[in-house]
Amino acid sequence: MAVQPQTDEQSSADTVPAHHCVQGQALIREVNEQIHHLGLGWGADADLCNIVCECANPDCLAPIHVPSQTYEQVRRFPTRFVLAPEHVLDAFQRVVEEAADYVVVETVGPAAATAVRLDPRRAVPLDDGDRPT
Length: 133
Ligand SMILES: [Zn+2]
Fold this sequence. Notes:
By secondary structure, this protein is of the alpha+beta class.
């Protein structure tokens, strides 16, 4: 990661798949935020949050049990996601924490900017992303 090419979202075509993946992850992240805040995931163990895998596969809805404290720590970083252990995409994710039931990954490279932009806890209005058609 010594060489960081200029991030030009409009012309770097090879980053498009990663962008798409991160957008899907961001959607699941919003779902998990609601689960977390509504307390829907709380089971018998009040310290455990039952969320959904935030991997890049849009069809993946694998349930994950994460300590709510860990979940809160992950959400402090807009580029971090909680996945099932076997769902990590090495191409644009770096594992920062591994447990038996889940893995915390950090999005790296140009896709990280997308993850930050879509962070539900930032609430920054973004209207400049749409191209006129
Ligand atoms: Zn998954």
